[in-house]
C-alpha cells in the first residue's frame, strides 16, 4: 500500500481565534499571513482541512454583543466567495477531507458561555441568544463554560470554584443537542462537577479538551491532570494539543512532541489531535509571554507537518494519521451522526 507522506496529510485543528482577530483588529483580513498563524494562506499551505473557529469573549458587561459580532463574522466568511467553507454535517466533513484544492472547512465553537448569557440577565434569554448563534453559524461544535475567571456557570482555570446552579441547568439544556462541552478552560473542580452531573443525570453530552496539553509533562493549570485525561479517554473524548509556549515548556520546543508521546503512551492514542490555539499577538503588551510560540510552532503553514515529521520515526504510520485528522474526524462524525 502506498504511504501518504506526513507533509501532505490533511489536518483538523480544534481551536483558533481568527474570528477575534477579524473582529478586533483595524485592517484585519484573512489573507494577512504576517498577522496571525492561522491566516488563510497559512491554513491552505498547511493542508488544514477543518479549522474550528472560536467565538471568544471575556466575562464582562457587553460580552454577548462582542460574541455576536464574531458569530456574524463567521456567517460573513461562510457567505463570501473565498476558500473558507462552513462545514455543518458529516457528509460535508468527509468531502472537505478528500479535496485536493486549497479550500479550508470551518466550524464555530463558543469559548466562554458568557458569549451568550450575561451575568445579570435571565438564563432563558441567554439560551435564546445561544440559539441565534447556532442559527447564524449553522452549527456549534462545542461550548466552554468559562475562560480564565469564574462566571455564572462555574470556575475558570485560574480559580478553584466548581459548578453553579446555572452551570447544571446549561448541562441539562445541552442534553442530546449534539454539542460537546469543552474542559480546556475549566477549573479542575468545575471539570469534575461537570462529569458528575452528566453521570448522575445520565446526560448525552460529548466531551473534549479542545486546546490543552498534559500537566505531568508541563505543570500549568491549563494543562490536564491525569485523572481528567483518563476521563476524556474513557468517555471517547478528544484532546487537542496546544502550541502556545506557556503550555508547552518555557525553553524547549521539543517538549510538544513529549506531550504527544505522553498522551499516546497513557491511552490517548484514539483521543489526541491538534488544537494549536493561534491568535493575534502583535498588539500584546505582556512581554513576559514573548515569544508566544516557538518558531517551530508559530504558523499553520509548517507547524503541523514539522511535528508529524518529527513523529513519523517514533510512531506507527497509522498513529500519525490519527493525530493529524482521523481522531478528530471520528469524534465530530460521532456527534453529528
UniProtKB/TrEMBL annotation:
<dbReference type="InterPro" id="IPR032466">
    <property type="entry name" value="Metal_Hydrolase"/>
</dbReference>
<protein>
    <submittedName>
        <fullName>Peptidase</fullName>
    </submittedName>
</protein>
<dbReference type="GO" id="GO:0006508">
    <property type="term" value="P:proteolysis"/>
</dbReference>
<dbReference type="InterPro" id="IPR008257">
    <property type="entry name" value="Pept_M19"/>
</dbReference>
<dbReference type="GO" id="GO:0070573">
    <property type="term" value="F:metallodipeptidase activity"/>
</dbReference>
<dbReference type="Pfam" id="PF01244">
    <property type="entry name" value="Peptidase_M19"/>
</dbReference>
Amino acid at each position: 500500500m502506498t504511504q501518504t507522506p506526513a507533509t501532505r496529510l490533511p489536518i483538523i485543528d480544534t481551536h483558533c481565534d481568527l474570528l477575534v482577530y477579524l473582529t478586533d483588529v483595524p485592517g484585519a483580513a484573512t489573507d494577512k499571513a504576517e498577522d496571525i498563524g492561522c491566516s488563510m494562506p497559512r491554513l491552505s499551505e498547511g493542508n488544514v482541512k477543518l479549522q474550528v473557529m472560536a467565538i471568544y469573549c471575556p466575562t464582562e458587561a457587553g460580552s454577548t454583543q462582542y460574541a455576536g459580532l464574531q458569530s456574524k463574522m463567521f456567517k460573513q466568511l461562510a457567505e463570501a466567495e473565498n476558500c473558507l467553507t462552513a462545514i455543518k454535517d458529516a457528509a460535508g466533513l468527509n468531502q472537505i477531507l478528500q479535496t485536493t484544492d486549497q479550500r479550508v472547512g470551518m466550524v464555530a465553537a463558543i469559548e466562554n458561555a458568557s458569549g451568550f448569557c450575561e451575568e445579570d440577565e435571565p438564563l432563558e434569554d441567554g439560551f435564546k441568544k445561544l440559539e441565534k448563534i447556532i442559527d447564524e453559524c449553522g452549527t456549534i461544535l462545542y461550548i466552554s463554560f468559562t475562560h480564565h475567571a469564574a462566571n455564572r456557570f462555574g470556575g475558570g482555570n485560574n480559580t478553584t470554584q466548581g459548578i453553579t446552579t446555572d452551570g447544571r441547568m446549561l448541562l441539562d439544556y445541552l442534553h442530546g443537542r449534539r454539542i460537546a462541552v469543552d474542559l480546556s478552560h475549566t477549573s479542575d473542580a468545575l471539570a469534575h462537577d461537570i462529569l458528575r452531573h452528566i453521570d448522575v443525570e445520565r446526560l448525552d453530552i460529548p466531551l473534549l479538551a479542545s486546546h490543552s496539553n498534559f500537566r505531568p509533562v508541563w505543570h500549568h493549570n491549563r494543562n490536564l491532570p491525569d485523572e481528567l485525561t483518563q476521563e476524556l479517554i474513557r468517555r471517547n473524548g478528544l484532546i487537542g494539543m496546544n502550541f502556545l509556549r506557556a503550555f508547552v515548556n518555557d525553553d524547549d520546543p521539543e517538549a510538544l512532541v513529549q506531550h504527544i508521546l505522553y498522551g499516546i503512551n497513557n491511552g490517548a492514542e484514539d483521543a489526541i489531535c491538534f488544537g494549536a490555539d493561534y491568535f493575534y499577538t502583535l498588539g500584546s503588551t505582556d512581554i513576559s509571554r514573548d515569544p508566544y510560540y516557538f518558531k517551530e510552532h508559530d504558523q499553520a503553514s509548517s507547524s503541523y507537518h514539522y511535528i508529524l515529521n518529527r513523529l513519523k520515526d517514533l510512531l506507527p504510520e497509522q498513529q500519525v494519521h490519527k493525530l493529524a485528522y482521523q481522531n478528530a474526524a471520528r469524534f465530530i462524525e460521532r456527534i453529528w451522526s
